[in-house]
């Protein structure tokens, strides 16, 4: 893809110190655009991981880092006053499905209120494009291929927060002509992945001969999507002006946790020690994306199979100093 295809000049990326935000910034910074990255470095994992990502991004002179909490709208407003922002890619959020059951109010603040703040700023400063990172979790216990036309069935406060943001986005798009595109991401993995996610937990534990915990009997299935395909989906969405759409970004294939562990064992060359614990009610049985719409509207075509992606990730983690 050509790097000169964007018509935006100043792109605001929230959550730039996070797993997906960091990977997206790295790719976008290869273009001529200026990236303003906002993050308050509040992810639930090691602070050093986040600060190293920011340090890495700051090496590019078309990157500006703003360490601020998006809940503080008056402080964020100064950035909108100072820079002529063309589009917003909003990734900042609290991300743990299970944690959202323990601390649901955090998800109201950092997901719903923060998105509202940004939509308000879009309205005030006449920003025409907003790309939102939603989640497959909004489908809840829907079965089979998950299609954007299905009625959402959130089964966790996290999923409710993501669905609420989509509804606010739809309303602002209608009222103020903001182009709002909600990308529903299906379990993302790859280099710089969050340490709390299944693939990183499994890979790290097996490499270190530690036991892995599987919640449920291992039959839960996920559509795991490699980070490069997700970044490509965001880049494609950023090039379009889409009035209002919800679009799945997945692979269209799912795999059970048991089969995933077998593959990881094979690629690392070691057996896993597995401890089975009770499953969570908030975890859907399966996520499996219907990606027909992404193909049609964005020309999105995921390229990395689970086997290729696991090998790439295991190779990366072997070389990385920050796990
Ligand atoms: N990783 C996945 O598999 C996945 C799947 C579906 C959706 N998503 C969505 O993609 C986005 C990015 O996820 P990720 O995996 O990179 O998570 P992450 O935790 O690595 O990144 C989120 C970032 O948001 C920042 N943040 C949170 N609240 C903030 C606030 N109030 N002000 C400023 N910054 C704040 C955090 O510091 C963190 O850097 C999230 O919106 C998440 O819900 C991720």
Can you give keywords for this protein?
Rossmann fold; 11 helices; GDP-mannose 4,6-dehydratase; 41% helix; lyase; two-stranded parallel ribbon; 323 residues; 18% strand; alpha/beta; NAD(P)-bd_dom_sf; disordered N terminus; NAD(P)-bd_dom
Describe what you observe in this structure.
This protein is an alpha/beta fold. It has a domain at 10-187 and 227-250 and 288-302: NAD(P)-binding Rossmann-like Domain (Rossmann fold, 3-Layer(aba) Sandwich), CATH 3.40.50.720. The protein is 41% helix and 18% strand. The protein has eleven helices and 13 strands. The protein has helices spanning 19-28, 47-57, 73-82, 99-102, 104-124, 157-176, 198-207, 227-239, 257-268, 292-298, 306-319, and strands spanning 10-14, 34-39, 63-67, 87-90, 129-135, 179-185, 188-189, 211-215, 221-222, 225-226, 244-249, 255-256, 273-277. The chain has a seven-stranded parallel β-sheet, with helices on both faces. Strand 2, helix 2 (47-57) and strand 3 (63-67) form a beta-alpha-beta unit. Helix 9 (257-268) packs across helix 11 (306-319).
Structural class by helix and strand composition:
alpha/beta
Give the strand order, joined by hyphens, for the main sheet. Answer: 3-2-1-4-5-6-11
Q: Which CATH architecture of the domain at 10-187 and 227-250 and 288-302? A: 3-Layer(aba) Sandwich
Largest sheet: 7 strands, parallel
- Give helix % range: 40-55%
DSSP strand tally: 13
CATH superfamily of the domain at 10-187 and 227-250 and 288-302: NAD(P)-binding Rossmann-like Domain
């Amino acid at each position: 893809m050509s790097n000169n295809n964007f018509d935006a000049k100043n792109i605001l990326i929230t959550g730039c110190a996070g797993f997906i935000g960091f990977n997206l910034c790295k790719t976008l910074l290869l273009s001529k655009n200026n990236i303003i990255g906002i993050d308050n470095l509040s992810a639930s994992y090691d602070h050093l991981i986040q600060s190293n990502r920011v340090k890495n991004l700051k090496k590019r002179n078309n990157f500006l880092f703003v360490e601020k909490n998006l809940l503080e709208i008056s402080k964020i407003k100064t950035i909108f006053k100072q820079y002529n922002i063309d589009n917003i890619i909003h990734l900042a959020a609290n991300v743990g499905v299970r944690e959202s059951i323990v601390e649901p109010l955090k998800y109201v603040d950092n997901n719903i209120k923060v998105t509202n703040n940004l939509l308000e700023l879009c309205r005030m400063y006449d920003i025409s494009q907003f790309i939102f990172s939603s989640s497959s979790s909004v489908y809840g216990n829907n079965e089979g291929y998950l299609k954007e036309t299905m009625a959402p069935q959130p089964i966790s406060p996290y999923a409710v927060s993501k669905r609420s943001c989509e509804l606010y986005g739809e309303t602002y798009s209608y009222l103020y002509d903001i182009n709002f595109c909600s990308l529903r991401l299906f379990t993302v993995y790859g280099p710089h992945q969050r340490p709390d996610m299944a693939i990183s937990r499994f890979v790290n534990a097996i490499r270190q001969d530690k036991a892995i915990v599987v919640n449920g009997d291992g039959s839960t299935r996920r559509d795991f999507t490699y980070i490069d395909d997700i970044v490509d989906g965001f880049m494609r969405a950023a090039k379009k002006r889409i009035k209002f759409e919800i679009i799945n970004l997945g692979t269209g294939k799912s795999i059970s946790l048991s089969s995933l562990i077998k593959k990881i064992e094979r690629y690392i060359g070691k057996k896993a020690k597995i401890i089975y614990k009770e499953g969570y009610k908030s975890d859907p049985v399966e996520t499996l994306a219907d990606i027909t719409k992404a193909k049609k509207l964005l020309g999105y075509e995921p390229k990395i199979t689970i086997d290729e992606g696991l090998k790439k990730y295991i190779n990366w983690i072997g070389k990385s100093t920050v796990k």
